[in-house]
Amino acid sequence: MISSLPFAALAHYAVDWQLPPAVFFFAGAIVVGVLRGRAQAAVALLVPLVGIPNLLGLTAATVYDVEFFTYTLEFLRVDRLSLLFGLLFHIAALIGVIYAIHVRDTVQQVAALAYAGSALGAVFAGDLISLFISWELLAVTSVFLVWARRTEQAAGAGLRYLIIQVFSGVLLLAGALIRLHETGTTSFDYIGLEGLAAWLIFIAFGIKCAFPFLHNWLTDAYPESTPTGTVFLSAFTTKVAVYALARGYPGTELLIYIGAVMTAFPIFYAVIENDLRRVLGYSMINQIGFMVVGIGIGTSLAMNGAVSHAFNDVIFKGLLFMSMGAVLHMTGKINGSELGGLYKTMPITTTLCIVGAASISAFPLFSGFVSKSMVMLALLQDDRPIIWLVMLFASAGVFHHAGIKIPYFAFYAHDSGIRTREPPWNMLLAMGIAATLCIFNGSYPHLLYSILPFPVDYVPYTASHVLTQTQLLFFSALAFAWLNLVGLYPPELKSINIDAEWFYRRLAPQSIQAIVAWIDHTGGLLKQDAKAQLKDFVDGVTRHHGPEGAMARTWPTGATVLWVAILSGAFLIASFLP
Amino acid sequence: MSDKSQQPSHPSPPQPAKASEKSHIFDNPQNVKRLLRIFYTTCAALFGAEFFIHRHLDHAVESWYGFYAIYGFVACVALVLAAKELRKAAMRKEDYYD
Which ipTM score applies to this complex? Predict the structure, then answer.
């Protein structure tokens, strides 16, 4: 990693406060909690704006250690990796706050700032215990953004989300404590996959990173949040996990395979999913897959690709979620089966959405083009053609479902008859900022490249790269057009699709029900058997000792005399025996 | 499952289309046809461009003529057909979990 810090050119805007960036966000959350109305929005807006100069002023020498009994919590570790994610989260928070200016819901305003603060706390954590604290804060602050939708589904999805996220934190804590016991330190640096502690921490990161089979909290909860809440959710949790993997597990080969699966399987779901924000949830896992593969390869090129793609993804995925949030906000609908033709009344939103779609699809001049390609090239340099083919398939697929399907079914397709207006100015402004950044990073990547962890000697704009990528995308679009024209394209249907969540939402409850029923049934049989045996016993006792029983009869005196005579006779005979 | 249209509030309830509203660009099927024609021409041009632009190879796997174009098309058709099969296995009614 380059040792010098990246923001030297911006030193002019820096202030010398040397505070952990999270401080501003938590303080802001408290202030926003007591304010109401416009003052609330104004303070929320101020937080990232004040935070950025502080961030620019941080130096590697800045530490913020807190003694906790005999343990030292390192709340501030400044290097190129943490600063890049720090800057990214400030930008994401600023865009999110602008997008949510009109929201008059204290719960959401407080939760959003505290959530962003938790993410900043996590990327600047220098040890695993302070990472754990931020890790759990991420969970408990963000769940309120899901619950803020105040629907029955949101309540259920939020609870499932919270349980899974907190469990991830528990694994992280367990791993950290075992590591402390074994090595005497919990400093958060390269971990690698050796020993129980390393695996526990790996799985904890994997849950937040939406590894296959651990991913369903994302596609379950994110689409149930409010239009503005999802924008915040999409920015932080998974990218904190990507950061944590980049810090702890670079060059871990297993990540290449995990990442490749993550890029490929969600696109099938995305094609048939009806809820357009859930489509974006699946495409989010697909994009994180590219980052995970990059971290797994671990070369300078791959790591730069992973990290820069995380940067671009937060912005373009945020833009796509914002455009769908705008549709939901204005029409109250988000299912592809109920939308269509909105370009007539929301032309600006349509255009901004297409910018996001072009960026995620990695069109030349848009941001995905300059970052994803680094991971793809690194795969070929590492001589992994099979994985590369899988990821190329996923690259074509992402254009298919996120690049075409999202804008097409929301804004074009058949006219749903819905006539609405553009969303409020602040939503358009936030989307405009994000779209500008997408085009800026895509057309002038040098600024982004200059803040990456490793030196960049990659040139994205060669005639060859532009041609091949454009061919890939246009012929993917051709497939979409052809399938639509011949009627092979699956229509948007009012439905849901079962995924890995089926195991805990259907199989587990049903298994438990079945087990309970079996216990109940078997218990019933046992009870019947015991009852029958008890009855036999009672009957027996009654027969012998009951009022009619032989043992309860009053015996006549004569019988007694007879018995006495027999016994006396027997005694007499016995006394004559030798 | 409660209807998602029951949002707390959205500023303008969606209005039904008015018969008298102005015609938009894709209301005219001619425009759709024109767009598609431009699109097909671009695809053909891109496919042919490989004759003139030297493609830098990073690996033997990408060496066929038109590899990216063919792979993109085949990948997406396969994706959609496979997704239709997935739908048979995975699709449930909206209230499946309720």
Answer: 0.84
